[in-house]
Amino acid sequence: MTQVNWFSIYRVHHRVADKFRVGRAFLVGDAGHIHSPAGGQGMNTGIGDAINLGWKIAHVLQNRADASLLDTYEPERIGFARSLVSTTDRAFTGLVGEGVVGEFTRKIVAPLVFGVVTRFRLGRHAIFRTISQMRVHYPDSPLSQGTAADVRGGDRLPWMGDDAQDNFEPLRSLDWQAHVYGEVGKDMETACRELHLPLHAFAFTDNTKDAGLKRNALYVVRPDGYIALASFEQSASKLRTFVEQFHLRFRNSPMPA
After folding, report:
1. Distance (Å, rounded) from C-alpha 170 to C-alpha 199?
2. Domain match, 87 and 151 both
3. Most buried residue among 16, 103, 174, 240 by CB atoms closer than 10 A?
4. Which residue, 37, 65, 96, sits at the end of a domain?
5. Given this model, what pLDDT does residue 28 score?
6. What is the pLDDT of residues 89-113, one digit of tens each?
7. What pLDDT is stored for residue 175 in this prediction?
8. Which domain CATH number covers 46?
């Protein structure tokens, strides 16, 4: 290059709004958080915000949930936004730093570390889970309750990695559902039928165990694929209490009189 026709200084802003909701106003995507392009996380984060808020607004507008459901949006998404801004800030600062240290990081450290990590399957898997934001979870949300084996309320439903039975296939419904890996009790069948909550039973296999799921436990899955309720036992009373807490009505439930 011998001539520069146009030159501009690129400045990165790192900000997170104090609140993601005030009354009937919600902030989503770059309106609520902005950060460096390091890691390419901006689009994924905005999509995550939209999905999280979208199904909750739809439920309230359709009289399928109490308005308190909307209160779970901010605590679920603002914590992740703050963490993301912090990590991308550190990564970007290191990569664009001036002087010998910055140049050494860009030309030697970053390529070396990335090259070593990506040689191993676990390293590639960790990078994928981080960039795809599959590690995002909501353990402190009011909508997250219970623990069963390695899975707790607020975790993304783990895929059991079994080609013979795909526990992610039912998620195409984009609606609430209950999962049991093993034997389904009659009380649970009755409760789900009366609540009009779709119930899916899967065989408990080695792959299921490796995924961290508990045999015969109850997992209530939200429309966005996260676990809302994880119960060590198939407790119909726990299920009903959870449903009543947010006044949930499922897709095929009759309209209230």
Report:
1. 10
2. no
3. 16
4. 96
5. 93
6. 555 555 555 666 666 666 666 666 6
7. 94
8. 3.50.50.60
- Residue 255 confidence (pLDDT): 57
- pLDDT tens figures, 26-77: 999 888 887 766 666 778 888 999 999 999 999 999 999 999 999 999 999 9
- Stretch (H or E) spanning 161: none
Q: How far is the C-alpha of 114 from the C-alpha of 112, rounded, in Å?
A: 6
Strand, helix or coil at 50?
helix
Measured CA to CA, the distance from residue 210 to residue 199 in angstroms comes to: 22
- Answer yes or no: do 152 and 225 share one domain: yes
User: Where among 62, 81, 96 does a domain terminate?
Assistant: 96
Give the amino acid at 237: S
Q: Report the chain's mean pLDDT, rounded to a whole number.
A: 85
Query: DSSP state, 5?
Result: S
Residue 46: inside a domain, yes or no?
Answer: yes
Q: What is the CATH number of the domain that holds 160?
A: 3.40.30.120
Confidence band (pLDDT; 50, 70, 90) for 159?
very high
Per the structure, the complete domain to which residue 24 belongs is given by 15-96
In sign, the C-alpha dihedral spanning 51, 52, 58, 61 is: negative
User: What CA–CA distances, in Å, run from 116 to 23, 94, 121, 122, 207?
Assistant: 49, 19, 11, 11, 29
* Backbone Cα Rg of the chain: 22
Question: Helical H runs in the chain?
Answer: 42-61, 73-96, 99-104, 110-117, 121-131, 186-195, 206-210, 236-245
> Does residue 131 belong to any structural domain of this protein?
no
pLDDT above 70: residue 177: yes
Give, for 234, the enclosing helix (H) or strand (E): none
Whether 86 and 154 map to the same domain: the answer is no
